[in-house]
Amino acid sequence: MRRGPDRSAAYPLGVLDPCPRCATEDALRAVRRLVLPSDARSDEIAVGVVVCTACGADGAFVVEASRRGALDADATQRSLVTLPADDLDALDDAIAACPAPLDERCACAAHRHLGHADAKARWVGLRAAVRGLRDAIADPRGGPGLAVPEGAAAPEAAALRGAPDAALAAALATPVTWRRVADVERPYAADVAGACWRLALGDFPAEPLYALEVDGAAVGTFDDWPAAWTRP
Questions:
Q1: Is 130 in contact with 82 (CB distance < 8 Å)?
Q2: Helix ranges, 59-125 (H)
Q3: Are 2 and 91 in contact (CB under 8 A)?
C-alpha cells in the first residue's frame, strides 16, 4: 500500500482516538481522503485510509455529516472500518489515482465506484463500495472505466468500453443539469429541450450504474458519468 502524505491536506481524526490496536492517543493520521457525493441521508460523505503513527496499524474511515432537520441540527458520524488487506489496498490505490479527491463531482473511477448508491439514492457503505470497486478491477474487460489508458481521447475511450448506440451517445454528449427528485427508482430528473429525462440507478455491479429514459422511453444503460452532465 502507498502511504504517502494525503494530497487533500491534513484531516482531524481525534474523535476516533485511541488507536484500536495499541491504544495510543492522538496517533491516527489520514493518509488518503476522498469526498463522495451526498446521498438521501447525508450532506457530506468522506472516506479514506488511516494509519497509526505509533504502531503502524492501518484501516479505513468514514465520515457522514447531515444538517437536515432543525436549524441547529448538525449530526456527524465518524467511524473506523476494518477491511481485508486487499480491499484496503484497492481503496488506497483508487484514492491515490483520483485527480481531485476533494471534489465530489469528479468523474474518476474512484468516485464512480466508491460513491455508488442504491435504488433509494442511499450510499451503499464503504465495504460494499470497495467490493464493487474490486469486482470492476477484476472484470475481464477491466471494469467500467478502469481499463481505459490514462490520457486516452474520448472516442478511443468509448471504443475501449464498447461504444453505445447513436441515441445514447448523443444523449451522453448533451449538456444536462440534473436535480434530485422523490422517486426511489429514478432519483434524478432533468428538462432538456422540452423533454423529461430521468436517470435510474442500477443494481451495481450486477447491472450498469445508470439507465437513461427520455419521456418514458428507455434510451440505454451506461457506467461512466458523462463529462457534459452536471451532477445534482
A1: no
A2: 85-97, 109-114
A3: no
